[in-house]
Amino acid sequence: MSTAQLAAVSYLARYAGRTHALYAYQLKQWFAWCETNGLDPLIGVQRAHVELYIRGLGDRGLMDSSVNTMMHAPGRSRRGCRELDGRRGGHPDD
Q: Please, what sign has the CA dihedral across residues 20, 21, 25, 31?
């Protein structure tokens, strides 16, 4: 299991039911996009990468509200991992 996968499992452990299923889906989509684009989902992702991911969601026909929802789990899990590692601050989405 990669560090990113372990972080995702740890993040998802606090949720149950539909919220767990939704966040698991969101993370799966984010991880797949990162893999396709040669990125680690937690390390080295910059704001430009997130903007490209968001644009891709919109290009797939998702409404703005759905795009916003799709970013909950990836954004929260990345922030949480940085806080645990003491890397908070200086990141564009902090």
A: positive
- Count the Cβ atoms, other than its own, within 10 Å of residue 79: 15
- Whether residue 65 contacts residue 51, with contact meaning beta carbons closer than 8 Å, is answered with no
Four-CA torsion 71, 10, 5, 85, nearest 10 degrees: 90
Structural domain count, the chain = 1
Are residues 28 and 74 in contact, defined by beta-carbon separation less than 8 angstroms?
Answer: no
For the chain, helix (H) and strand (E) counts, in that order, are 5, 0
Give the domain extent around 33: 3-84
pTM metric for this prediction: 0.75
**Mind listing the pLDDT tens digit for each residue in 14-44?**
999 999 999 999 999 999 999 999 998 888 8
